[in-house]
Design brief:
- The protein has 469 residues and is of the alpha/beta class.
- The chain has 3 domains: 133 residues, no CATH class; 108 residues, Rossmann fold; 193 residues, no CATH class.
- Helices cover 51% and strands 9% of the residues.
- The strands form 3 sheets. The chain has a 4-stranded parallel beta sheet.
- A hairpin with a 5-residue loop joins strand 5 and strand 6.
- The longest helix has 34 residues.
- It is flat.
- 32% of the residues are buried.
Length: 469
């Protein structure tokens, strides 16, 4: 296997991890069904095999929805076990209330499902602890040499300090290039050698898999012949923009230059993809979600009315102008989570501990219940399920002046949830808006039906654990 073929997120370790977990889930199911068949009622091997495949697929889908397959998940062992247990509870509900109701012939027994869940909880938790304790990912980490030690290269140093950020690679060093500005990278992290004459030799001797071009000044500074030789020998040569994009799931707007925007792949999708999920699919999903969540919406309406609606006469709903597709304004509909006089002094950012938020509002904001009326915006076509979150015109006008490429997020329909909500915590400042823009641009560049579906599945994690906004 060439060094270049080792590049990417789907490393050997990732595949081993997924395969190991799949095998454990299948074995847990087979063990539970065998015990049931042996002690209670005979079940054919074919029936047990089908249930094992169904059980494993369902558990892995539920695990995805609660973030267990997030490569950058920051959880201790107790947090992992908690998510594993929640996964298996979701799986039991999914199988018992939906799958086995639709396909009753597949149902073995509730006792079988309980036993399979217990076996899975023990084996999967132990496997994950062993996998992470022994740091199995190191078997396929790429050895990366950064060509540059200035301001641009320092972005890699700042953004990828945690071990979880470097699970797919290890940085051998930062090579100072002529023209680099001093950015304070520690001396012991520098790889000092005659890069103009010895780059290829250094790469071979240190078993480098990937070169990242991150120098501040590139014109006539890079040894092109050595880079060409490295590339023809199977060593990956990549721009810092592409490196950050692939490793972090965001586009570093502060590094973008005009030619990159023009020539970058993925920004020229045709018109029919610009609405994220197809409108008809959005409508179907909205109707299904309304059918499931209407009791929650009814209770929320009553609680808001009882808390302050009957005293003040204020509506339980909140309508506000937001900027949508192509920069066109529309009215967003939400459950009111703040006091009626929340903006008597003008518009301002909402904060995590905003004193304008009511008691009911604090709960419904945490679990995103306040967003449910936006299903009406989906039905009207102003929003989709997946896309950048729509912002207020007052903030957009200022952010567009301060942040390069900010208006590009309006090239797709806004959504109820999005890539930025999965990847970035609650934010309420212009700096947070810039960080979220990096994820929004990544989504716009890579948007597809599969990415939208993955975001929808993982939105369960946001709701369940009160993450993002």
């Amino acid at each position: 296997m060439s060094k270049a073929s080792r590049y990417g997120r789907n490393t050997i370790a990732d595949k081993l991890f997924l395969l190991g977990e799949l095998v454990l889930l299948v074995l847990s199911s087979l063990l539970a069904s065998y015990a049931y068949s042996y002690y209670l009622s005979p079940v054919s091997f074919e029936h047990r095999l089908i249930n094992a495949a169904l059980f494993a697929a369902s558990v892995m889908l539920c695990a995805l929805s609660v973030g267990l397959y997030d490569q950058k998940l920051r959880e201790g062992q107790k947090g992992i076990i908690k998510r594993v247990v929640i996964t298996l509870l979701f799986n039991a509900i999914l199988l018992e209330l939906i799958i086995f109701q639709l396909f009753s012939v597949l149902h073995i027994s509730t006792l079988y499902l309980a036993a399979a869940s217990v076996f899975s909880a023990i084996s999967v938790s132990a496997f994950r602890a062993f996998f992470h304790y022994n740091d199995i990912t190191r078997i396929s980490r790429r050895r990366v040499l950064i060509l540059g030690a200035g301001e641009r290269a320092s972005i890699i140093e700042r953004r990828m300090r945690r071990n979880v950020d470097k699970r797919n690679f290890e940085i051998v060093g930062f090579t100072p290039i002529e023209g680099d500005k001093d950015a304070g990278i520690a001396e012991h992290k520098l790889a000092k050698f005659d890069y103009k004459n010895d780059l290829y030799q250094y790469v071979v001797e240190h078993n480098i898999d990937q070169l990242v071009i991150a120098c501040d000044e590139r014109r006539n500074m890079l040894p092109v012949e050595h880079l060409f030789k490295c590339k023809t020998r199977g060593i990956d040569v990549i721009e810092i923009l592409d490196f950050i994009e692939r490793e972090t799931g965001q586009i570093a707007v502060n590094l973008i230059y005009p030619s990159w925007v023009i020539y970058a792949n993925g920004l020229d999708l045709n018109q029919r993809f610009k609405t994220n999920l197809d409108y008809k699919l959005n409508v179907v999903l909205a109707i299904l979600l309304l059918a499931v969540t209407w009791p929650i919406m009814l209770i929320t309406t009553l609680l808001i009315y009882l808390e302050d609606g009957r005293k003040t006469g204020a509506s339980v709903f909140y309508r506000q102008i937001r900027v949508g597709y192509d920069g066109k304004p529309f009215y967003i509909v939400k459950f009111r989570s703040m006091r009626p006089d929340a903006e008597k002094n003008g518009a301002r950012w909402a904060t995590a501990d905003d004193d304008r938020v009511t008691r009911v509002g604090r709960i419904i904001r945490k679990y995103r219940i306040d967003e449910l009326p936006q299903l009406l915006n989906v039905l009207s076509g102003d929003m989709g399920f997946v896309g950048p979150r729509p912002e207020r015109p007052e903030f957009v006008n200022q952010l567009a002046k301060d942040i390069p490429y900010y208006n590009q997020r309006h090239n797709v329909k806004p959504g109820l949830t999005g890539w930025a909500q999965l990847k970035y915590p609650y934010g309420s400042t212009a700096e947070d808006a810039q960080e979220k823009l990096k994820f929004d641009l990544y989504y716009i560049k890579h948007r597809s039906l599969m990415l939208d579906l993955m975001i929808l599945v993982r939105t369960v994690e946001i709701v369940l654990f009160g993450k993002g906004r």
